[in-house]
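Exercise 4. Each item below gives a protein and its sequence. For each, produce the structure-token representation.

Item: CfxQ protein (Symbiodinium natans).
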Amino acid sequence: MKRGPRKYSPARPSSGRKSKAEAIRVWDKLDTSKRGYVTVHDVLKQAKFLETEFPDFIREYESVARDGRVTRVAFLDYCVGRSAPAEDRARKVDMVQLRSMFDEVAGPAGQIRVADLIKHRARIQAVFPPLLEKFSEIDLSMSSTVSWAELEVYAGGTGEWLEYQLDRVVGLELLKQQIRQFHHSVVLDKKREDAGNKVKTGGKYHMIFQGNPGTGKTSLARVIAQLLHRIGIIQTDLLVEVQRDKLVAEYVGQTGPKTQKVIEQAKQGVLFIDEAYRLSQDTGKSDFGREAIEQLMGAMNDPPGKAPIMVFAGYADDMDLFMQANSGLYRRIGYTFDFSDYTPGELAEILNSIVRGAGFKLAPQLSANHFQRLGNVIEAHTLEQAREMMNGGLCERLFDFAKQSLDAREAVVSATNPSLEITEGDIVEACRRIPPPPARDGRRDARDAGDQTMLLRRTEAQLRTAKSEVQRLHAHLRAVKAVSAQNVAWKDDAMPEYSFRFWCRYSLGCLCHFSRRAARACSEACRCPKRSSPKVGSTPVIQIKESDSRPELLSP
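Answer:
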């Protein structure tokens, strides 16, 4: 008997993967109540449908479910393959073919743009569809373009992705090695579990970040969250940042629920607790930090998904005391990462990144020999204690002050095409305006106990700052008078003198005796946002006269 042509029927994927449209159709059948999640009860109700349409989901339900349920997001991720480990994805990509496709699509520009995606859609779909589907995820620089380095990182797996992220971090070589070792350990444990071995790793992903402010603890915490998500340890790359006030309440019985609420909020990602040592510091009044610690320790016993991976951050010496006072925490934390202070040379690199990111540039002599000259200037004109207490934050202040110095010069010459180049003089001026660091937490550093060296250096720094500020105002005043004299005849002798006071950014009272026009120019020269209205009769700390070539320091 002659049979007609057989109807074509696309084979169902054997690996549990479906198109997004198919996945949504199956989900709508499961989640009839529109709750956003399904349980074992829902699966049993639709058992016959699933055995026919999606038997792999029944077999792999335990690996998809979290807390006894499967969310819509987790189900769709499972169906369309988003949860596939990066290492598996890498094995399926022919890197030679991928490079050939990139060169063809990107062209001489070396960057794939949205217009290129549309123009070469068919070619991309045939070689590497994720470039169309996950363009924003591949675009690590968030520039709305994709470079070869970014595409290679995405196709290569978590190891390549991690190296790409670490390459963007200045310095911290010991820390980078610690993070690489952490990555290797986590990947090996995950492979052991996937092979059916019951390894005891639950709770051992919790970690300590110890180091001074400005060393990149929060930024690296985001990298860790993304890394754990890519490996498959946590469901999302969510990072929840909190301090003591977000965990501890004011009254009895409120701290436990308040802390638990934060734990629930972060349970699918990472909980970053900054200045964690403050939880166990005695404030001299009713303190419930201990209750928050107990609540956190209870959650640390739960596996990822039921509780977040926790990162405890703070100063190295304080974190040591914190761990010694809380042995239960110490037993539950598997990793400690050390964030060292930046060297002047590394600060120079960071400052250059900030300058370029803002659209400015450094003078050529500052950039030569890997910013050696810039590093020398920073080291010579800033206090070591300020560098230790601010680190990367110091560079942000330096750029702000250096730009103000550049703007002051450009304003005097009334440039129609203002310069973008920051000079060594601008950097020196910026360094002089950095205030000395305060004593941390109202205490003196242990290494300075018993002597007055630190106090003396801070006082000297304040004096240098005051002198620099006065000299800057005098220079600006002379420049303003020189420019104004070209068009306006000054008649100071005919105008009575009077006094006024303004607060500079370092809270030093300045009493200025000028003619009205000169006083107005001096007031305009001070761009301090804290400047108050002119006042008369205040006791001077620094007295300035128009005829002075140098400021005269007086006793209060």
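Check: Residues 86-156 form a domain with the Recoverin; domain 1 fold (CATH 1.10.238).
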